[in-house]
Structures are given as C-alpha cells and as structure tokens.
C-alpha cells in the first residue's frame, strides 16, 4: 500500500531531526510546538498546516520545501501570493488604517524577512510581506520626523525582500515597482549606502530585459556616485556594484569591462571579511563566486576560466543559501559545456539541496536539466525525477 502524505511528511521530519541531532523535545521547543504534536507528526498520525511545517523547518534550519510532500505546492503558493504583494504596494501613499508596532519590533520583522531572502525562503516572504509592507507604509505616513529615516530604510529593505519573490518568479513588472518604491524611500533615509544598494538591485531590470549594455552604464554611473571606500560598509557597497557590473558586462560580451570590474571587486573584497553588508553578501568568497559567474556569462568559449574559478574550492556554509546554490547552478552549466554531464547533474543536485525554491524556478536549471535528460536518454531515474521536479521540458 502506498504511504500517505502524512507518513511521508513524518518520515522527512524525523530524518532531518536526526541529521540535526535533536531530540523530539528539543525540536518541539525550538519550533514552539508541543512535543506530543511533533511525535504524532513523525508517526504519520496527524497532518499539519503550513505554519507548523515552517516553524519546524526554521527550527531545523532547513528550507520548508524539504519537508513538504507536494513538489509543486511551494511554487503555486508563491505565485498565488503575487497579487497580494501587488495590492500591498498599490496604495503605498494612501495606506489603510491599522495597527503599527513600535520601531524596534518593525526592525526585527524586516531583518527576519531579509534573512529569508538570503536563505531563498520565498514562501515565507510571500506569506508575511504583504501585511508587513502595509504596516510599514502606515508607519512612515504618520511618523515623526526623527523616525522617518529609520522607517524609510525599513521600507527599502522590505521592498527588496518582496522584490526577490517577484523577480525570481517572473513578475518583472511588479519587481520594477518594488525597485521604484526603494528609490522613493531612499531620499528620506538619509543614507548614501542605500543608493548603492538600490542600484545593485535595480540591475535586475536590465538582466530581465536583456538590456545588458544599458545595465552596465547604469551600474558604472552608480559606482561613480558611490561614497568613497572609507569604511567596511562603503567598501562592500562599491565592491558589490563592481561584482554585478562584471557579470552584466559578461552578458554584454564586453570582456575588457568584465575583467576590469572583476579586478576592482577582487581588490575591494580583499579589504573586508566575508559578511552581509547592507543586505548583500560581499567579501573574498562572494568575489570568487562571481569569477565563475562572469566566465559563464561570457559564454562557452570561456568555460576553462569558469572551471578554473571553481577548481578545488567550495562555498562555505556560512554564505547565504541563494548565493551558494547560484554557484552550483552556474558550475553545472560550465560542466555541461565541458562534456561533463554527470558532474553537471551532481552540481544541480547540490544546488537543490542548498536552496530548493531558488533552484527549482531558475531558468538555467530547467534548460540544463532538459539537456541532461536528452543526453542521458532517460536512463537515470534520478535525473528523470529531477527534470520533472523543476518542470524541465
């Protein structure tokens, strides 16, 4: 008899709990649920809703999609939330009446959303951000002058987290609106670094439109306008712009510009430790990942450089999940170009283990999985399953 969805969920929870070396009581306490509830879930004796699954996943420090049994549920839930995100920002300047939490609690909620973005936990963002955005718009509308800069920075950060969902799931018009709202908030924030951060995010619109030459010009203008590299935040902001400029120059097949910006990013990356600066990961490891990204962006004729950038090195677990999974997605493409299909599939599987939601809806993953499936002619069940999981055609 086939197992039920509750059985499969229970087995996955028990498995990941054992990997984390937690007792049932420890996991229940961390997830803020009763140990009896957890015991019944693991035994397959009860189902559970999304909130509890997400609480368990957060306690296990894994993506919730690793526990769910419906492979399409995460993507469908995110797409269903897109209208709510759109509605949340439609009336940003005429917000509805409602409660507003104190500033410290709003800071905590926005910081949590940024953590979800870096971990590629898009379902959680899609569920929580519509209400949080509405609350932030109310807060800034009625804020006293002394609180307005802080609230403007929070609005920009929350819009960036919401934009991650819109952009990753192809809602490019909505993504552009979130970026416009970030630009609306920036002058009120009194924060020079924020302008550089917004320019970094705005590059998405040029990637989406394949307007790489224009994107390079916009990023170079932002670099010229950025604050001098006089402290770690300013160094990281400028370095991140150079990283992104290098990649978009690669997409524009401008080898000289790509190498120039990559060299600048490498120099700046050597001046600060790897960390999250103003919501963006930057440092030596991030620069190295972008060396691979630039080589892949330049095309198959640069595959040797791509493999050289990855040889003998793996990204640290301390790096954001989205960035680590992106490394393996791009490595898979370079390996596929090099005639290494087995290595490419292994890299795609690694990307999936690190950040399932990011990997599943990445266009390159679908393209490369479809290519691998044709090359292997369906002789590997695991490859067939993977291709079906990411909807490769």
Protein model, in words:
- This protein is mainly alpha-helical.
- The protein has four domains: 1-69, lambda repressor-like DNA-binding domains (434 Repressor (Amino-terminal Domain)), CATH 1.10.260; 71-190, no CATH class; 193-313, no CATH class; 315-393, Alpha Horseshoe (Serine Threonine Protein Phosphatase 5, Tetratricopeptide repeat).
- The chain has 20 helices and two strands.
- It has a two-stranded antiparallel sheet.
- A hairpin with a 2-residue loop joins strand 1 (275-277) and strand 2.
- It is globular and about 60 Å long.
- It starts with a helix and ends with a helix.
Bin the strand percentage. under 5%
What would the average pLDDT be, to the nearest integer? Answer: 91
Helix content: over 70%
Within the largest sheet, what's the order of strands? 1-2
Distance between the termini: 31 Å
- How would you describe the shape? globular
Please outline the major beta sheet.
2 strands, antiparallel
Radius of gyration: 22 Å
Low-pLDDT parts are: none
Core attributes:
4 domains; 434 Repressor (Amino-terminal Domain); mainly alpha; two-stranded antiparallel sheet; 393 residues; 72% helix; single chain; globular
Task: Sum this structure up briefly.
This protein is mainly α and about 400 residues long. The protein has helices at about 5-20, 25-30, 35-40, 50-60, 75-90, 105-120, 120-140, 150-170, 170-190, 190-210, 210-225, 230-250, 255-270, 285-300, 305-310, 320-335, 340-355, 355-360, 365-375, 380-390; strands spanning about 275, 280.
């Amino acid at each position: 008899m086939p197992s039920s969805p509750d059985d499969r969920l229970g087995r996955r929870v028990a498995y990941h709990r054992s990997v984390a070396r937690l007792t049932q009581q420890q996991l229940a306490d961390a997830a803020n649920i009763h140990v009896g509830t957890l015991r019944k879930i693991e035994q397959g004796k009860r189902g559970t809703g999304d909130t509890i699954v997400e609480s368990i996943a957060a306690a296990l420090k894994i993506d919730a999609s690793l526990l769910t049994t419906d492979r399409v549920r995460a993507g469908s839930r995110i797409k269903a939330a897109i209208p709510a995100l759109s509605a949340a920002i439609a009336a940003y300047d005429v917000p509805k009446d409602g409660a507003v939490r104190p500033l410290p609690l709003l800071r905590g909620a926005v910081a949590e959303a940024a953590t979800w973005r870096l971990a590629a936990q898009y379902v959680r963002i899609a569920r929580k951000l519509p209400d949080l955005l509405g609350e932030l718009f109310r807060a800034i509308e009625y804020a006293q002058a002394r609180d307005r800069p802080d609230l403007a920075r929070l609005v920009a950060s929350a819009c960036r987290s919401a934009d991650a969902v819109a952009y990753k799931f192809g809602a490019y018009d909505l993504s552009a609106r979130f970026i416009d709202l970030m630009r609306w908030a920036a002058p009120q924030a009194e924060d020079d670094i924020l302008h550089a951060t917004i320019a970094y995010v705005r590059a998405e619109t040029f990637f989406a439109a394949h307007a790489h030459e224009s994107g390079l010009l916009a990023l170079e203008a932002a670099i010229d306008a950025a604050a001098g590299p006089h402290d770690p935040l300013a160094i990281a902001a400028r370095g991140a712009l150079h990283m992104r400029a290098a990649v978009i120059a690669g997409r524009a097949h401008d080898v000289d510009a790509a190498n120039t910006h990559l060299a600048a990013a490498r120099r700046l990356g050597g001046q600060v430790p790897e960390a999250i600066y103003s919501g963006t990961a930057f440092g030596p490891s991030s620069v190295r990942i972008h060396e691979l990204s630039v080589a892949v962006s330049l095309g198959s004729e640069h595959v040797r450089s791509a493999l050289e950038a990855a040889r003998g090195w793996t990204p640290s677990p301390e790096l954001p999940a989205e960035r680590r999974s992106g490394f393996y997605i791009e490595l898979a493409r370079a390996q596929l170009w090099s005639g290494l299909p087995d290595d490419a599939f292994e890299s795609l599987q690694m990307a999936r283990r690190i950040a399932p939601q990011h990997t599943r809806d990445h266009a390159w993953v679908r393209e490369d999985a479809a290519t691998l499936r044709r090359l292997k002619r369906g002789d590997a069940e695991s490859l067939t399953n993977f291709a079906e999981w990411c909807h490769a055609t």
